[in-house]
Amino acid sequence: MRTSRDVFLTIGKGTYTINTPLDTQELDRVKALIDEASGEIIKGARQEDILMLTCLRLAYSLDSVSNKLSKILEKIDASS
Fold first, then answer.
1. Where in the sequence is the domain holding 10, given as residue range(s)?
2. Buried b or exposed e, range 29-66, using 16+ CB within 10 angstroms
3. Dihedral sign computed on CA atoms, order 54, 56, 59, 63
4. What average pLDDT score do residues 51-55 get?
5. Tens of pLDDT along 15-36?
6. How far apart are CA 1 and CA 49, in angstroms?
7. How many whole angstroms separate alpha carbon 65 and alpha carbon 73?
8. Rounded distance between C-alpha atoms, residue 40 and residue 35, angstroms
9. CA distance 64 to 1
10. Is the separation of the CB atoms in 19 and 6 below 8 Å?
11. How far apart (Å, rounded) are the C-alpha atoms in residues 1 and 4?
C-alpha cells in the first residue's frame, strides 16, 4: 500500500493542497493533463470558470478516448 502525501497542484490562478498516494511520475502526468486542459483558457477568466472549463475539457477528452477504445475493441472482437 502506498503512503499518501500532501502536494501542491496549480490550476489556473489557484494553488491547491491535495493528499495523494500517486508517485512523482504519476502526479507529473496528471499535472501535465491539467495544464494542457487549462492552458488555452482565457487569461482574464475567473478562477471558477477556469476550473469548470478545465473539468469539461478533461471530461471531453476522457469521453473521446473511451469512444475510440470502444471502436477498436469492437473491431478486434469482430475479427476474432
1. 5-79
2. eebeebeebbeebeeeeeeeebbebbeebeeeeeeeee
3. negative
4. 95
5. 999 999 999 999 999 999 999 9
6. 36
7. 12
8. 9
9. 32
10. yes
11. 9
pLDDT > 90: percent of the chain: 84
Count of structural domains, the chain: 1
Q: Tell me the C-alpha distance between 64 and 46, whole Å.
A: 27
In the prediction, which pLDDT does 34 show? 94
Cell numbers given for 60: 471531453
DSSP states along 48-71: HHHHHHHHHHHHHHHHHHHHHHHH
Averaged pLDDT, 35-45? 83
Judged against a pLDDT cut of 90, whether residue 43 lies above it is answered with no
